[in-house]
Amino acid sequence: MEGEQKNGINTGFGESFCRTEAETGRQKVAAYIRVSTDLSDQENSYETQERYFQQLLTKNASWISAGIYSDYGRSGTNGEKRTGFKRILRHCREGKINRIVCKSISRFARNTADFMIALRTLRDYHVTIMFEKEALDTAEPTSEFILTALGAIAQEESRSISGNIRWGMQKRFPRGDVRNQKLYGYQYNGKMVITDSGYQYKDIETVEAEAEIVRWIFQMAADGMPFHTIAGELNREGISSPESFYSRKRKAHPEKGQLYKNLDEGWTARHISQILHRERYAGDVLIQKTFTLDYLSHQTRINRGEVTQYLVRNHHTAIIDRELYEEASKIVRMNADTYGKHRKKRQMRAFSGRLLCAECGRYFHVRNTKFHPIWFCPSTTLNNGKIICHSEKVYEKQIVRMFRRAVMERFRLTTLPLVDEAKLADIMSGRFALDDARKIPFSDEAAHFVPQMQKRLEDACRLDYIERDRSFLKSQISDAGRKIESLQRELCLLESRKQSHKAELCIREQEMKEIMTGLKETEQKLAKEKEREQKLTERMNYLEAYWTELEENYDCREKTIAWMKGLPVGQSGTVEFLNGITEEHISAFVLSITVHSPLQYTVHWFDDTRTEVEMHTNIGDFRNTAGHCDGQCMMERDCRRTGER
């Protein structure tokens, strides 16, 4: 199929696209890009693809650009984890896209099931897709069969690659051919080890200062010292903790819910446990502790006999003797038998992944879920001699009261200021009866609150122009970059003129003055453009994170809209909304709740606005009193306690 030339760009679509265009008019065309790893060469490939498709979409007069959808660092065998892939299919269903261009079938999907579902979705909604590398277009009647076959070939290619890797491991592992790891206490020495079979891997040597710490940890564990006590001793001595892959990633690319990158939790019981579990410190290697379930999901599982394990003795230089390792391992197994059986799988709750610690940045965890759930920052429970967070625990009932207060204050649902008094404490605590609506001083806005909130959610689902806004911001950043380059060239030219005038015997004072003035003005313009570029980049990074969060909760918003459609009209609907929002629907409205204290919170809403909430009383202070459910009593007691101080 030969491509055609339009506006100086080879579209590669041929006559089939001309027929589609003639039938439907201007096409809303989107591009899809996927890069599966973070390698630098693929990063360049991503940038190259983005520039190419941006030019393709904007310079073709017969197209309306629907944006560039992308997934960076995502495998093509699992569509569930690809936000851009899911968005482009959803927008096709919503009629926002008529046509898709993609570099190749393997970039679109390597899973035949996902590929076929995507093709059926596109066909059902009359959306065509063009794969440039294969020169295939679903606008051609004969292309669908070929695409189906090539989709299966792409999946088979992934299976073949995975099979080859698995076959190689099955051959290497029985021979004991396994690589070294750069663990705490070891470092690569720049040499290579070549086995009898010809397998090569990097050689390691011990770092004596760290090796001494490892020996001490194993000895203390063998003597029965608790792991958190060992960690506390190391922290008190000021010994730096091991830097893992995850800690390096956290500092380089911090994510929401993780410990702030400027904080260091030091040695923890987790570090001690990880060291004690590693047989490599005794010079041995146990191969296939974990295994990959399949090449489609890429899920890793602990090996409990599903695949053969191999123990390689004396693989490298040992830091501890095998007897000490066995003694410490007995303690590890005893701890697992004692504490492991009490561990239960975490149950997701309404506020899971929503409560952020204002002091250290981590997500709050929950305990005591059967009776009165309590949320707490995990950094406060380290018990390792380091105090990096002072956050207080918060009862879930207090968070429920706070959130309902936030809703009522932001949307002005009451005519009176909200305080912890009896007639308002009920609805804030979730004990409000529907037939008592007349007791609440609702405002006129409360009667129309539910349909208005429903419309807000529907607009958030329908009017999401992330790709358009991303393209606009990137064009502004590129424009700032071009201006910076131009100003830098101008600055260099003025500097050279300045130096040449200084070298002349007869210096013309007026001309030198003009050069100096030009230099100063250019430097000011350059600084201003650099500041503009930095602000735009920061804004872009912030919006990328916000858009990702927003997209993750799309399905939840759809379910919440369906729930709200069933609510009664008027104030009774508002009451049911307030009683039900903190169950399964909170994720539709809230991206995060930052907990400053049990009395102070910041609610980050789905529309990227924030509400500061200040509570008058903490329900945790009244848990064991007869009148703790009475808001008026709570307020009076709090006032008395404040007066006593």
UniProtKB/TrEMBL annotation:
Zinc recorded as keyword = no
Q: Which SUPFAM superfamilies match?
A: Resolvase-like, Tropomyosin
Name one matching Pfam family. Answer: Recombinase
Q: Which GO terms describe its molecular function?
A: DNA binding; DNA strand exchange activity
The residues forming a coiled coil are 470-539
What sequence ranges are listed for the domain Resolvase/invertase-type recombinase catalytic? 28-176
Q: Which InterPro entries match?
A: DNA_bind_recomb_sf, DNA_bind_recombinase_dom, Resolv_N, Resolvase-like_N_sf, SSR_resolvase, Zn_ribbon_recom_dom
Identify the PROSITE patterns for this entry. Answer: RECOMBINASE_DNA_BIND, RECOMBINASES_3
- Cite the entry's keywords alphabetically: Coiled coil
Under the heading CDD domains, the entry gives: Ser_Recombinase
The domain of life for this entry's organism is Bacteria
For the Recombinase domain, which residue ranges apply? Answer: 183-338
The answer on whether this UniProt entry bears the keyword Transferase reads: no
Q: What is this protein called?
A: Resolvase, N-terminal domain protein
